[in-house]
Model the fold of this input.
Amino acid sequence: MRLLILGCGGFVGSHLLDRMLARTDVEIEGWDPDRTKIAKHLENPCFTFHQVPCIDGVELRRLEERLVGADALINLAAICNPSQYNTRPLDVIRTNLFDSYPVVEACARANKWLIYFSTSEVYGRTLSSYLKTESNDPDLYELRENQTPLIMGPIVNQRWTYACAKQMMERILYAHHATTGMPFTIVRPLNFFGPRMDYIPRCAGEGVPRVLACFMAALLRGEPMQLVDGGKARRTIVAVEEAVEAIARMLDMPNKAKNQIFNIGNRDNEITMRDLAEMMRDVFAEITTEPKYRSHPIVDVSGEDFYGTGYEDCDRRMPDLTQAETLLNWRPKRSLREILLPTMRDYLTRYADLAQSNETAVAS
Ligand code: UGA
Done:
């Protein structure tokens, strides 16, 4: 199998490389601005890496050449950090829509299978949140790939720039398939967690990372964990290793995966952000053997203060997983605690200096 992967050096890409390069029948050519998370694969003869800031004209020509002998192109490249949707809206739209568009055209010209990583944010907010109902009718909150309407907030809430750009890409893929026959698969990830996830703010990266790294930063620095808008939002969390297994199954079963849209998440791991903060305090106390973390401070903050104007939250993301279960025979099993333990240990190892300096500051 020959694969091309854009964004192979990111969190998901690095786990996908681990999974696919463990096999002997796979050759991968990848593109990414960064190589830190995939250093261990750089010497692998089955992997060719291009460290480039973006897919410009030169790289697009290279990509077109490589498409000739490829079985699939997987596009993971994106700006997918909520703090940037309302603060860098033009970059978010440019990267996620306009920079991705020529790649679709190249796949269509070559009639090659494009596996596109979209987002669960395309669903926007649930119907029940707009109707302000307490009803527990799954029709009002469950996210079904081929049925649920995609409901975004008003233009002034720039949170939705990302979801709109991704939705437009999905529609372009679908239209290309209908018009030119280009095979496609759309993946909608629902909160993948695992080792090598986001950076810790003020150590690396730009803006505010996703919730796991924010809470980890607070624990490592001895600062309060901040709960946005009361921590009522709910997410379902899936282990990244199990999520990339779903992608491996798609690649092994092209007849089942082509021209489909898949939610990839774990229905059993639904949690509010307040409960996640509390669970992370307990797990951190366990892995550091420091009981004091069980009562680590948690404070409330408004979405506007935390993310700036134009933030609006997705209230709940409960995926219907029938597609992945029936077509790929995929069902994730790892509990949230089983996911948090190795993930938080990884942060503790990567940012040992930070934890150390915090201990020193508290002691002196
Ligand atoms: C993000 C991306 O926008 C999605 O595209 C992506 O699919 C998803 O992450 C993912 O990881 O799969 P979101 O879940 O909203 O979406 O991102 P987070 O930053 O992880 O926020 C989750 C919730 O935690 C939100 O309600 C946010 O307001 C809250 N939060 C975040 C806090 O309460 N405190 C923090 O310090 C940070």
